[in-house]
Description:
Blueprint: H1 3-17, H2 29-38, H3 42-68, H4 72-99, H5 109-119, H6 124-153, H7 157-183
Amino acid sequence: MNKTTLAFAAAATAALLAGIQPVRAADPPAARARAASQTVSASDRTFMTKAAGGGLYEVEIAKMASQKAESADVKQFAEMLVKDHTAANDELKALAASKSVELPKDVPADKKKKMAMIENNRSGASFDRAFIQKVGVSDHQEDIKLFEMASRSAKDADVKAWATKTLPTLKEHLAEAQKLAGSKK
């Protein structure tokens, strides 16, 4: 046996002992996808799914706010959210595809209800205040907690790196929202 064959045999044996089935290039794509998804822990998949749903929500509600807001500052904030969350969503989609993790394609039902509550019976300054408080401040506080946890405890290095990379942008959004909330009282 040459060194390459020996190294492959040792790696395959270790994988089998760990309960991981080796994947070869000749395996069907479905088998490779199953093997790749086995490398992402359930908690990492849950984080990715929550982050994706939250990201879709942020983009949709920010698009609404960029049209419906009265204040130019709130419209500008909403446009920043659309740009930044769209970029983060695209990165997460690519990461999930590389890990064979299925992400939601639509805003989750609980987030749709939240969108309706913010939009219904509100216009002008009332809409602006609700959007800044609920989306800008409250939602970003929740997002930051979720991303901080993932940046500390995600098992997959790529998932951890993405959470860590995205966190400063979420903190910037929160700081900007808090500034706007103070001026909209």
